[in-house]
Amino acid sequence: MSVHLAEVPEGTPIVIWFQDEARIGQKNGVVRQWARRGSRPRQPADQRYEDAYLFGAICPARGTGAALALPQADTEAMQLHLNETSRHVAKGAQAVLLMDRAGWHTTTNLDMPNNITPIFLPSRAPELNPVENIWQYMRANWLSNRVFESYDAIVDTACEAWQRLVAQPDTITSIGMRDCAHVGQSQCRMNIDQAVLGFAGAIVLIGLGFGWFVTPYWLLLPAFAEVNMIQASFTGFCLAAIVFKKLGARSGCAFS
Question: Count of CB atoms within 10 A of residue 195's CB?
């Protein structure tokens, strides 16, 4: 990954995104459904051929995503989706976008946004792309066992399903998180944690000094002085953690 990010300024937060497309059409799928025991539930089916493509990208670490429902999958559609994804990348961050080697992904006719760095997954390896699992989840919950009367109905349903997905950031994180998705966030978290520990250590020392020297009864009531020192130290540590967590969130870093 360091080769792909060689031109990215040092210190820029790195966020991992995954991208893929799914075809949604009138020849729809059938999945399990709830029914009374012993009954034989009916499920609708359609033999027409109208369809649309849902371009989707997710950032598991942030629990967010970007999508467009388009009539076809080609270079023009991919360009529109790249532009849409770019708008959702955290401000000041660089997105590493992992995707398969479809022709409209690898073409040199794409104008890649400045805040996106593409990395192509190995061929015939869909298990490396968690967006495939996102499609499975959406089909199982919102897109199957139904009939679409028109192209507009397909697009409306696809958009509604995606909006329901992004309203559940924990679901995106749960389904989409992979070890490689921790790359940028781990480095950012490590830097912030080091700063928190250093600053909190200084606050603890100040708290100890405050509890020892400022308490007017430290000679007469050592137990009372000890309580003051603990309270001051704990308060200082909590304030330091809160301050640096807020700073990290503003810079686009991820915390868990």
Answer: 15
- Residue 16's region, left for phi above 0, alpha for psi from -120 to 50, else beta, is beta
Domain boundary among 156, 177, 198: 177
Residues 129, 132, 138, 141, CA torsion sign: negative
β 51-59/64-70 pair status: antiparallel
Task: State the pTM of this model.
Answer: 0.70
User: 176-235, pLDDT tens digit by residue?
Assistant: 998 766 655 444 444 444 544 555 555 555 555 555 555 554 444 455 445 555 555 555
Pairwise CA distance, residues 63 & 177, whole Å: 9
Residue with tokens 């509890």: 211
Q: Which domain holds residue 203?
A: 184-250
34 domain residue, yes or no: yes
In a domain, 210, yes or no: yes
